[in-house]
Write a structure and sequence with these properties.
The protein has a single domain, classed as Rossmann fold. The protein contains eleven helices and seven strands. It binds adenosine-5'-triphosphate (ATP) and magnesium ion.
Length: 295
């Protein structure tokens, strides 16, 4: 069965998208079948992986983006998955095994204009459609915006695990705290829609520190995060095994450059990746391995 994981924090800009894209690529490189679902209307992950030209076509036509699955009779997830999404200039496949459910800017309409059947909220529609393709994957990852509004709810409701990207600062800790509160409320409100076969609602399994500057001492923010995790664990508000991931991702220019190149860092420079054991590429590899072990 696929492991379904949301990357979410109530704090924006902590590196959710960078982490999910680069970790998804690292998992695919390790031979895992990965589906990345973009639930952020900013479409950062989709633009990054498709590059602007391919993404523009979807955005202009409105066809093939995740919002269309909520329109009855229009499209289903299985129709909009872009297989082996990373392509080179000649259309050659650069990373087999990494698929994408893309989004475009119209996903914002899910929050306001959307008037669906109240008995079938978007997260239920998404969950049921995802079930049709789940067997094709080892990992299904959800890139969520920094809230639990309707788009995020699709990822959270379908997930078995929640990972919280964080920077070593006070605002990330506040974002994490708020997330745990909001998750609890969301699970209460949606309990009647859960089937027994779905298992227990997803709780936070881990916090991943990202963008750690060389030479910076993050012991104090890490300790504060650990204390908060311990409190939540005692109150059974996060998973009993919830932890701070051993792997932390360093701050590196290549992460920012990779976006402009339309590649995950693992593909930006294969040669330097192989040569250097001490690089951000290895951080992502280690994180992918730690996530695999966590399962
Ligand atoms: N390890 C890193 N090293 C250097 N820059 C990074 C790293 N991780 C993320 N960044 C940069 O930080 C910025 C925010 O990252 P990103 O867009 O991934 O955050 P986010 O949490 O997804 O934001 P949002 O809340 O808007 O969705 C981007 O400019 C990104 O390139
Ligand atoms: Mg993002």
């Amino acid at each position: 069965m696929a492991r379904k994981i949301s990357f979410i924090n109530y704090k924006g800009g902590v590196g959710k998208t960078s982490l999910i894209v680069n970790t998804a690529a690292a998992l695919a490189k390790l031979g895992k079948r990965v589906l990345l679902c973009d639930f952020d209307t900013q479409s950062n992950a989709s633009i990054w992986l498709l590059k602007l030209d391919r993404w523009n076509k979807i955005n202009a036509s409105g066809e093939g983006a995740v919002y269309s699955i909520f329109d009855p009779g229009k499209a289903k997830i299985k129709d909009i998955i872009i297989k082996d999404v990373l392509e080179g200039k000649e259309g050659e496949k650069l990373l087999p095994g990494l698929d994408l459910v893309p989004t475009t800017f119209n996903l914002v309409d899910l929050e306001n204009e959307f008037t669906g059947d109240p008995k079938r909220p978007p997260y239920l529609v998404f969950y049921e459609q995802l079930a049709e393709v789940e067997a094709n994957y080892d990992f299904i990852l959800f890139d969520c915006p920094p809230n639990i509004l309707r788009a995020s709810q699709c990822g959270v409701f379908s997930s078995n695990e929640i990972y919280v990207p964080a920077n070593p600062d006070a605002l990330s800790l506040i974002g994490f705290t708020l997330l745990v509160e909001k998750l609890g409320k969301f699970h209460q409100l949606t309990a009647s829609f859960r089937k027994a076969s779905m298992g227990v609602p997803a709780q936070v399994q881990g916090v991943i520190f990202n963008s750690i500057k060389a030479g910076s001492d993050i012991e104090v923010p890490k300790m504060r995060m650990q204390l908060r995790l311990n409190q939540f664990r005692s109150a059974k508000r996060v998973a009993p095994t919830a932890k701070i991931f051993e792997t932390q991702i360093r701050d590196a220019m290549i992460v920012r450059r990779a976006v402009a190149l339309g590649l995950p860092v693992i593909l930006v420079s294969q040669e330097s990746a192989e040569a250097s054991q001490d690089s951000v590429i290895n951080d992502y590899r280690r994180l992918a391995s730690e996530i695999i072990r966590q399962g």
